[in-house]
Amino acid sequence: MKFKNWFLLILLFLATGINAQIKNPVKFKLTVNELGNNQYEAVLNATMESGWHIYSKDIPEDTGIPTEYKVSGKNIELIGKFTETGKKHEEFSEAFGGKIIFYSNSAGFKQKFKLKDGTKPGDVVAEITYQTCDDRVCLAPNTLEFTQKVTPKGATEEVTADIVEPAKDSVKMVETVTADPGKGEMTVKEVSKLDPKQLKIESIDFQKPLTDCGTAAVKDSENYWTYLFLGFIGGLIALLTPCVFPMIPLTVSFFTKGNKDKSKGKRDALMYGFFILLIFVLLSVPFHLIDGIAGNVFNEISTSIWLNIVFFIVFIFFAGSFFGYYDISLPSSIANKSSKAEEAGGIIGIFFMALTLVIVSFSCTGPILGSLLGGSLSGSSHIPTLLTLALTGFGLAWAIIFGLLALFPQALQSLPKSGGWMNTVKVVLGFIELALALKFLSKADLVSKTFLLKRELFIGIWIIIAIGLALYLFGIIRFPHDDKKPKISIGRKILGVLGIGFVIYMIQGLVPSERPKLQLLSGILPPLNVSYFHDEKDGILGMHPEHDFFKALELAKKEDKPVLIDFTGYGCENCRKMEEFVWSEPDILPILQNDIVLASLYVDDKEELPEDQKTKIDVGEGQVKKVKTIGDRWSLFQQVNFNNNSQPHYVLITPDGKVINAPVSGYMPKEDFKKFLECGVNYYKKNK
């Protein structure tokens, strides 16, 4: 089969929508409404599949791709600017270092216009440019065009698009459609030529990878087990505080010794532990109810500048309580009523005993629970679920400890005695609260785009906090509830040394480097670009990738290396996450720097193509895709060759254009990406 025919077959395959791997999660429908007085409204309604969203026109600069809606045409005069309808969502993006604004499920775009000559028909041409993303990938920016005939009342006509024969070395896909302008039905527009020689796609064989190794299983970026584990750890820590620890032996002894039937006493103690777990889980129920009423409220909360500042102040307030300057407690009347209800006996009495414990321990557990709430609000999605998991972990820790001690009461003898060490636990938690408070201040700074709290300043404040913690652990500084001459145990000394080690670890983050440091704090520190030392000329992690695929191929031939095609975008959040959190890993970056030629192809590059390379492609359902920029070109290049239109998308090929192993997409764990890279690089080295 000749190349030209082969190309036409592939392009027609693409255009008819047979390709299942090319995602199209957004459907559009154009409607023209008559408003009276020769005024009309062109309404383009978008319907999105579950989990997908498109950005608003109001999205801040240097984040995602804002949606643009343009209406033009013969005998059309616009009235004002276009507006958006639908439920806006606002969410803080760690990768972009700011707030993103988007629509999910559905959105509408409206543009008012009038007919210049109210006695003649008008041709409405509606064009929308948008980008679609979910939690893992972003699709290439897309430009679609819709046409519709508008005829004043009383006039009807039949509109037919003629069939046009394709020109030499070009593709034309044209449909003939009959439309009733009075009903506002859509006509199909002719699609102009596409020169295959301009795209130069003949060297890629995307259907036959040379090896099947290194296929990465992409996982969901939201790790729910992490929140359950953190909640469990928080519960264990709370058990060591002065408000809770002394009550453990008293409570367990009440069930095991205060009951003549020991087996019943153990059952009651287990029931007590279960009710503690249940109470903590029930604390999250209101958040689910709020989410059901206003599903976007938590995203709005997590991105609110003022609310993040409030969280910062609250965490500072919690720290002061842990340091011993004041106590935080619920009104005593609540505890008294709960304690009185214990007299009911039986299961009800046990429940109120558990509730009383939760209430009276609030002065110690409140700040920890507040930290869990703040951490859950920082999650990317499903905030009520994350909070439920965290509180479940917290209550589970208490239930397990009380339950095990009830089953094995002899273990009470091995518990340490209450003493000054419990206050040490509280003070250490106070320093942790101070550090966490800074995270909320940083988020407020990033969302407001003031960028006053630079990465290095954040690190410097954490270093001061860590030094203060070390000085406390060594007994050099004291707080109100500490002994005047505290005994410095071996445990405190070990923790103090670890604090100094943490200071030394963080100091390296103050020194400019080609590679990002402090990997353990990724996602907590401000982004790499919010820095005193950042310069756009530094490239990506010190690398300067090629932005032209064919130049990358030529360089790969000279250096005898495979090419890593990185389909990316300036507005692709998951691409930035991969670069900062995965590419920067010490066992990944050397491979990218030394073993491959990196070709980063930006599918949202807005630089215009030469006029003879611009085209339109009918993608069905009345939608026409424009190819007019370099980004459009690489987007089409990706779709035709690799059956994919999501970013990030990674392909390893040989210098002569052979795909080495199966491409991978989306944000993925380091291990999966490393497996993909090593597979392709090792195969090439062995078989070149």
Write a structural description.
With about 700 residues, the chain is an alpha+beta fold. About 40% of the residues lie in helices and about 15% in strands. It contains 20 helices and 20 strands. The chain has helices at about 5-15, 195-200, 225-240, 245-255, 260-280, 285-295, 295-305, 305-325, 330-340, 345-360, 360-375, 385-405, 420-445, 455-475, 490-505, 550-560, 575-585, 590-595, 630-640, 670-685, and strands spanning about 25-35, 40-50, 55, 70, 75-85, 90-95, 100-105, 105-115, 120-130, 130-135, 140, 140-150, 185, 565-570, 595-600, 615-620, 625, 645, 650-655, 665. The strands form five sheets. Strands 4, 9, 12, 13, 16 and 17 form a six-stranded antiparallel beta sheet that branches. The longest helix has 28 residues, at about 420-445. The two termini are about 30 Å apart.
Average pLDDT metric: 75
Tell me how many strands there are.
20
- Biggest sheet character: 6 strands, antiparallel
The shape, in one word, is globular
In what range is the share of β-strand residues? 15-25%
End-to-end Cα distance, whole Å, is 29 Å
Radius of gyration: 31 Å
**What ranges have pLDDT less than 50 throughout 5 or more consecutive residues?**
1-21, 156-203, 216-222, 292-300
Structural class: alpha+beta
Task: Show the helix and strand layout.
Layout (H helix, E strand, L loop, with lengths): L2 H13 L10 E11 L2 E10 L4 E3 L12 E5 L3 E10 L2 E6 L4 E7 L1 E10 L6 E9 L1 E2 L4 E2 L2 E9 L35 E2 L8 H4 L24 H16 L7 H11 L4 H21 L2 H9 L3 H7 L1 H19 L8 H10 L4 H15 L1 H16 L5 H25 L12 H28 L7 H19 L16 H18 L41 H11 L3 E6 L4 H11 L5 H6 L2 E6 L12 E6 L2 E5 L2 H13 L3 E2 L1 E5 L10 E2 L4 H18 L1
Parallel strand pairs: 14-15
Antiparallel strand pairs: 1-2, 2-8, 3-7, 3-10, 4-9, 5-8, 6-7, 9-12, 11-18, 12-13, 12-17, 14-19, 16-17, 19-20
